[in-house]
Design brief:
By secondary structure, the chain is of the alpha+beta class. It has one domain. It is 49% helix and 21% strand. Strands 1-2-3 form a three-stranded antiparallel beta sheet, with helices on one face. Helix 1 packs antiparallel against helix 2. The longest helix has 17 residues. The termini are far apart.
Length: 161
């Protein structure tokens, strides 16, 4: 049945979207996730790399048992792809393979998304910790909103008043 899983996933367009995941990185800027291919050269003037995807939320489709990433990107596209892949797997008789395909989407922490792409099998561990994971956008906003001296100054201002 494992061969059926790989054949169906290959036939659903995985090869067209699949890039070397080690070179892909998501960055959270201004409430949007930007997908960068780190092999692309930065712009000579701005120093920014061209982004491949801009989205408010991120979805990752992976195998629940092995943690292997199959697809990632905009949630609508990933959910649609996963439903089609599950349908094809079930039509081929691989019900277990269809049930192993999991999609996680939402405002995930940037570090967790990038670990899923760079560390094989990491998605399996992320799935187990999903309920206790912080909100991706709020954690980044809180951490980057004020520097240590700004927090110290605001504390002193409150005491003085």
């Amino acid at each position: 049945m494992e061969n059926v899983l790989h054949a169906v996933l290959r036939d659903t367009g995985l090869g067209a979207w699949f890039m070397d995941l080690l070179h892909l990185r998501y960055r959270l800027k201004s409430g949007f996730y930007y997908l960068y291919d780190m092999r692309d050269a930065p712009n000579a003037i701005t120093g920014e790399r061209p982004y491949r995807l801009k989205t408010e939320l991120v979805a990752i489709a992976f195998d629940r048992i092995t943690g292997r990433v199959h697809q990632h990107g905009h949630p609508t596209r990933i959910h649609s792809w996963a439903m089609g892949a599950q349908r094809r797997l079930r039509m081929a008789g691989d019900w277990e393979g269809a049930n192993r395909l999991v999609v996680v989407s939402g405002p995930l922490p940037e570090e967790e998304i990038n670990k899923c792409l760079s560390v094989q099998g990491y998605c399996r561990w992320m799935l187990m910790r999903l309920a206790s994971m912080p909100h991706g956008k709020f954690a980044a906003h809180r951490a980057g909103s004020r520097s240590s001296w700004q927090r110290r100054e605001s504390g002193q201002q409150r005491r003085a008043a």
